[in-house]
Amino acid sequence: MRLFAALWTLGSLLKEAQAWSFKNGVFHNSIWLEQAAGVYHRESRKGRYQLTYKEAMAVCKYEGGALATYEQLEAARQIGFHVCAAGWFDRGRVGYPIVKAGANCGFGKVGIIDYGYRLNRSEKWDVYCYNPNSKECGGVLTNPQKIIQSPGFPDEYQDEQICYWHIRVRLGQRIRLRFLEFDVEEDMECMADYLEVYDSYDDVSGFAGRFCGDYLPDDIISTGNVMTLKFLSDASVTSGGFQLQYTAFNASLFSQDYTYQEFNTLV
Ligand SMILES: [Ca+2]
């Protein structure tokens, strides 16, 4: 049994080594991150680790899904679902799926990092839901330049959308986001519908802003060669949506003494 487990682990590691690699100078994998095989990660609108087990179930149900089972989470992980945040899943279990070993997440392990069945269901975590019918959008973008639009644009986006776009450009490049059109259901703190931008490979670190309403956000420039955009709409009231363009540029350009106007003509 132990030998089998060791072989399985070795097999997984080899598979991961293939799945994550440098290609054309871009570090990437071949999957849709954060939402895969009908499984997705959610946190409370109040922030990370705010959901009791009962609330976690309600979050999934609200969106027409249910808590993911261990098997569903593992199936999603096998095709690249990687989230560095512990969440409830089926039967009061807590854990998170790790594809790529990292020192800061998952104790350097790959697999479902399993905290086991929790005796105290009042503990607060995030949640992993399963909904095979959720509308998919987003993706991993590696082109040097591309337009990103809300789903259905120029029509209004629909309710209950969750989209993640991961932008990865060549090492040594940075990314500039320029908003072209923006109209997302407005509320004071963007709790209903919103677009979030992260100066990071995931939506865990590097928070750069949360946007709603119809005010066109300023340009956003990354510090590295990756960025993540997250769009979420709730169960009611839609709007026109958004359109933005990202452009990769050589980091060395930005470090030279260009004025912002000059810089804008360069990228
Ligand atoms: Ca809405």
Question: What does this molecule look like?
Answer:
- By secondary structure, the chain is an alpha+beta fold.
- The protein folds into two domains: 31-130, Mannose-Binding Protein A, Chain A; 138-266, Sandwich (Jelly Rolls).
- The protein has five helices and 18 strands.
- The strands form four sheets. Strands 3, 4, 5, 6, 7, 8 and 9 form a seven-stranded mixed β-sheet that branches. A five-stranded mixed β-sheet has the order 10-12-17-14-15, with no helix packed on it.
- The longest helix is centred in the N-terminal third of the chain and has 18 residues, at 2-19.
- The radius of gyration is 19 Å and the shape is globular.
- Mean pLDDT is 81; it is low at 9-33.
- Residues 185, 192-193, 233-234, 236-238 line the site of calcium ion.
- Residues 38-131 form the Link domain.
- Residues 1-19 form the signal peptide.
- GO terms for molecular function: hyaluronic acid binding; hydrolase activity.
- This is Tumor necrosis factor-inducible gene 6 protein.
